[in-house]
Amino acid sequence: MTTKKELSPEQREDLLQTVKARFEKNMNRHQGLEWAHVQAKLEAHPEKLWSLHEMERTGGEPDVVDYDEKTGAYIFYDCSAESPKGRRSVCYDREALESRKEHKPQNSAMDMAADMGIEILTEEQYRKLQKLGNFDLKSSSWVKTPANIRKLGGAIFCDRRYDTVFVYHNGAESYYGARGFRGSLRV
Fold first, then answer.
1. What is the pTM of this model?
2. 3-state secondary structure the chain
3. Which domains does the chain have, with CATH numbers?
4. pLDDT in tens, 156-168
């Protein structure tokens, strides 16, 4: 069964108003960028608008954090204070999910991100986000794990404690109520 990746006119308008208000409230995240240009780009790409809606719906509070001058893409990250609530208690990926014999989580971070049309933040992107504010003071977020670590059964996650960003490892099949993932979307 495929779900329709399209927003109703009401959903579209509500989302644009919400994201615009967040954009205007947090200008430090995107100095020099104008909302009208961001909105025009979003309206030209309804599938990206749907992905942005999924980020919002799951508690990510997406906001523009960068502009790629080479490609002309606006880059959104999840900017919720804590790891998005609608994306917690998930293991790292499908392989990890299938390796669990019992007490399986509902989903994996990589599968959820793919279903939403977004990418999980890399460690570098996570550190960039942390320069824009204090995030994950009580939670943690899976980040894109290098293949050599994943091949050995591990996965990495990050959080911020003691005014420092920490990178940790865990078995990819682990999941916790306070660990989710943050995503990025290029529009």
1. 0.94
2. CCCCCCCCHHHHHHHHHHHHHHHHHCHHHCCCCCHHHHHHHHHHCHHHHHHHHHHHHCCCCEEEEEEECCCCEEEEEECCCCCCHHHCCCECCHHHHHHCCCCCCCCEHHHHHHHHCCEECCHHHHHHHHCCCCCCCCCEEEECCCHHHHHCCEEEEEEEECCEEEEEEEECCCCCCCEEECEEEEC
3. 9-78 (no CATH), 85-186 (3.10.100)
4. 999 999 999 999 9
